[in-house]
Amino acid sequence: MRRWEHGWRLVLRMILALAIALFFVFPIYWLASISFKSPEEIFAYPPVWVPAELNVSAYIALFRDGDAWAVWNSLVTAGLSTVIAMILGTLAAYGIVRYRTGGENLTIWIISQRMIPPICVAFPIFLLFVALGLIDTFVGLITLYTAFNLPYVIWMMRGYIQDIPLELEQSALVDGLSRWAVITKVIIPMARGGFFATAVFTFIFAWNDFLFALVLTRSEVVTYPVQVTGYFGSQSTFWSQIGAMSMLGVLPMMVVVATMQRFIVRGMSMGAVKG
Amino acid sequence: MADLELANIEKHYGAVHAVRDVSLTVQSGAFVVLVGPSGCGKSTLLRAIAGLEDITSGDIRIGGQSVTRLAPRARNVAMVFQSYALYPYLTVYENIAFGLRARGEPEQRLDERVRWAADTLSITDYLERHPRELSGGQRQRVAIGRAIVREADLYLFDEPLSNLDAKLRDGMREELKRLHARLGRTFIYVTHDQIEAMTLADRIVLLRDGMIEQDGTPLELFEEPASRFVAGFLGSPPMNMLNVRLAEAGKQIHLSQDLMLPIAGGAAPAQDGEYVWGIRPEQVRLAEAGAPALKGTVDVLQPTGSRLLATVLIGAQKLTAELDAHCGVSPGQEIALSVAISRTVFFDGEGRRVGPATAG
Ligand SMILES: Nc1ncnc2c1ncn2[C@@H]1O[C@H](COP(=O)(O)OP(=O)(O)OP(=O)(O)O)[C@@H](O)[C@H]1O
Ligand SMILES: [Mg+2]
């Protein structure tokens, strides 16, 4: 065999892959480097590619002043609303698929709720939340994110559940499972890849929400995107704090994607039925 | 152990009347095969017994207890689905154990049962694999294992062998029969394959358009078919159906204007008139010289190895005869055939069987 040619191809391929990876990783690297730079380095020209020393004072400031709580607030609101939306949405999708709840039109109606531009409803929701006393509360934000994500979860899970062969469920029913057990022991394992992918996206939607968090919070449950804007002052902009806070916002997402990756594998349903 | 009783089962799917007034009592330990053409309601009936389909009216009783309103899991039945219905995310072991876990079987007993079922079906070597790593025949065994591992009152099978190739199917038929003898439990088995029905059943229930057409042992249905439909459904090659006219109080069979066969009194219906004469290919032989015979021309020959299937033109009608492989006939040849008339059957214009004069 022509090993020589094969070797060169491999090298070229690696170089190309590396270039592409660099292109995508660079912004994150830049963000991280800013968070560790000294103020002089941030504004230096030509730019400083690697900070001279790891300056963690921005992080210390975030934790000392309690600003880092914003990340915790984001984790709680995004996390809990994802869990609730996944549970309710999966049950609703199962009902729609298996019992034809709402016929043909309910699903379209549900997904249409997701199509409303958030800004159009932000003000009415603000007034509603004021009236209900939900402004600046976890309950308020979690409820809102759950309501906003539910249509997406129902829509996605409906598709995944439809693809599960009915006989797998029926076999479980005959074998002695209740409907509830069928959902946890058959439906969710069968739709596992789709289930976790949907959960990740649901989490990301809530995690990245800026509009509602800005309108509906004041000081108690400020989430990290809102917190970041606090460093753009009228006199000065605190770049190292922005960098550090943004890093705190990026890290959980990396962890989420990395842990979920192994669940989001395709081809899980191979071999379920004939063929 | 429990008998199964179906009382006046009706099932409508909107405008489709899938099951019509089916009543049936199955003794505990029987091997009953529900057979019939596609769409006749076999699966619907089986699924109704399992509780996967609500019935429109009627009653289903297992061991004297009505289960009509019970959920599938409260009925203590086990079922093998045509599509195997194995869980791809579980190993073979866990697939087989699935029903026992659902019912909270203690771990040690569960393990014993799973190993026994795997052993019975010779799949012990695959217990740690996933279904996608198995061949069709192996998956089939796992599907059967999922059912037999449970100690159910009834074991239901919906065309479990239809996805297998012919050879595997022959082997599995034999194993199923052995399994039934070993377990001594009630098997209800759906198929549209008449060979499966004949070979497996101690009792065949033949369905047509949602109704029971005939119900009896395989030999009863084969030899005493209640109708032309039953006679045509069972047997391979299928029964010959010749249009004939009986005359002289059942002493002459006219196949056409100039083709007449004299028969002994009492072998045919006493009432003269138009009939369909059902002759199985194996009831036809080459006639001995001088004996009354049907004369015809050999059209096509199909040797099967052990036998020779000859399609013979009798006037304008075709008759398939199963002859000796070495009888030496050739296409185009004129031959004389004799028929074991007392074993043949006659059907009236509605397709109902009419008994011979001696029986009536
Ligand atoms: N869910 C359903 N909705 C409407 N009609 C149905 C439904 N299931 C079955 N039917 C109809 O009921 C009749 C009986 O169907 P069934 O599945 O019992 O047939 P079968 O005897 O099992 O046929 P096959 O040998 O093809 O499996 C058919 O006419 C079929 O079209
Ligand atoms: Mg069927």
Commentary on this structure:
The complex is a heterodimer of chains A (275) and B (360). With 275 residues, chain A is mainly alpha-helical. Chain A folds into two domains: 23-55, no CATH class; 65-268, Orthogonal Bundle (MetI-like fold), CATH 1.10.3720.10. Helix content of chain A is 73%, strand content 0%. Chain A starts with a helix and ends in a 14-residue tail after the last helix. Mean pLDDT of chain A is 88; it is low at 267-275. In chain B, strand 12 and strand 13 form a beta hairpin. In chain B, the strands form four sheets. Chain B has a six-stranded mixed β-sheet, with helices on both faces. Chain B has a six-stranded antiparallel β-sheet with strand order 13-12-11-14-20-21. Chain B is of the alpha+beta class and 360 residues long. In chain B, helix 2 packs parallel to helix 4 and helix 3 (107-120) packs across helix 4. Chain B folds into two domains: 4-233, Rossmann fold, CATH 3.40.50; 240-354, Beta Barrel (OB fold (Dihydrolipoamide Acetyltransferase, E2P)). At the A-B interface, helix 8 and helix 9 of A face strand 6, helix 2 and helix 4 of B. Bound molecules: adenosine-5'-triphosphate and magnesium ion.
Largest sheet of chain A: none
Which percent bin holds the helix content of chain B?
10-25%
Radius of gyration of chain A: 24 Å
This entry's quaternary arrangement is heterodimer
H/I helix tally of chain A: 13
Distance between the termini of chain B: 41 Å
Count of individual domains of chain A: 2
| Unreliable runs of chain A | 267-275
Please identify the structural class of chain B as seen in this structure: alpha+beta
- The average pLDDT value of chain A, as a whole number, equals 88
- Secondary structure: number of strands of chain A: 0
CATH homolog superfamily of the largest domain in chain A: MetI-like
Q: How many whole angstroms does the radius of gyration of chain B measure?
A: 25 Å
Query: Helical residue percent of chain A?
Result: over 70%
The largest interface is: A-B, 25 and 34 residues
Order of neighbouring strands in the sheet with most strands of chain B: 6-7-8-3-9-10
Query: Any idea of the CATH class of the largest domain in chain B?
Result: Alpha Beta
Question: Count the strands of chain B?
Answer: 21
